[in-house]
Amino acid sequence: MIPIRPASTAQQVHDWLYRCVLRGDLLPGARLSETEIAAQVGLSRQPVREAFIRLAADGLAEILPQRGTYIGRISVRAVLSARLIREAVESDLARLVASTRPDLTAMGAELDLQAQADAAGDVPAFIEADDRFHHAMATAAGFPAVWQDLERLKAQMNRLRHLSMRSFDRGATIAQHRAILTALQAGDADAAEAATRTHLRQMLTELPQMAATYPDYFTD
């Protein structure tokens, strides 16, 4: 587990654990110890217990009476639902951006950062730049809050991405992002929508392969 500076609230402990689960630092089935985490972050067990409850409410942990708290498995249904919603929303955002032709400098900058992270083999940085690329598209469309709404839906999707991007060709993701950006810069709404849908459907290939490779990590 990754050490952190002493936290002052259950929310901070929750946020740290949340990131650890999404990044794969805490794998499905891992047991969480109130005592160990409380000692690690310099808190009593009560805020740590509250953080566990919040993590369970997120669908990322299971609290089993008399047995303890365990990191939950990745929900295939939740991944597919989030992907479906993202495709519907982001394909519309792509059409909006292509039709209004706003400044796309931020998207280009994140694409460059993603390429740098890929070259360095830094998967967390790669995915962070990926997220910012999509956030920048929502912002360019004039709907930055839409991305925040999507963020709340895609926790299980992000867990899959941190797993799959260690196995799949990250260059393919960069190429898909480049195709989206090129279409947006050209003001081609049809091409931008098509490129966005192609990109977000990549997960339909990754998910079954990851579930077959790591069956103990997934649940329906």
UniProtKB/TrEMBL annotation:
Which keywords accompany this UniProt record?
DNA-binding, Transcription, Transcription regulation
**Which SUPFAM superfamilies does UniProt cross-reference here?**
GntR ligand-binding domain-like, Winged helix' DNA-binding domain
Q: Name any one Pfam family assigned in the record.
A: FCD
The answer to whether UniProt assigns keyword Transmembrane to this entry is no
What domain of life is recorded for the organism? Answer: Bacteria
Instruction: Describe the location of the HTH gntR-type domain by residue ranges.
Output: 7-74
InterPro entries attached to this UniProt entry: GntR_C, TF_FadR/GntR_C, Tscrpt_reg_HTH_GntR, WH-like_DNA-bd_sf, WH_DNA-bd_sf
A single GO molecular-function term is: DNA binding
Mind telling me which SMART domains this protein's record contains?
FCD (SM00895), HTH_GNTR (SM00345)
Q: What is this protein called?
A: GntR family transcriptional regulator
From which source organism is this entry? Frigidibacter mobilis
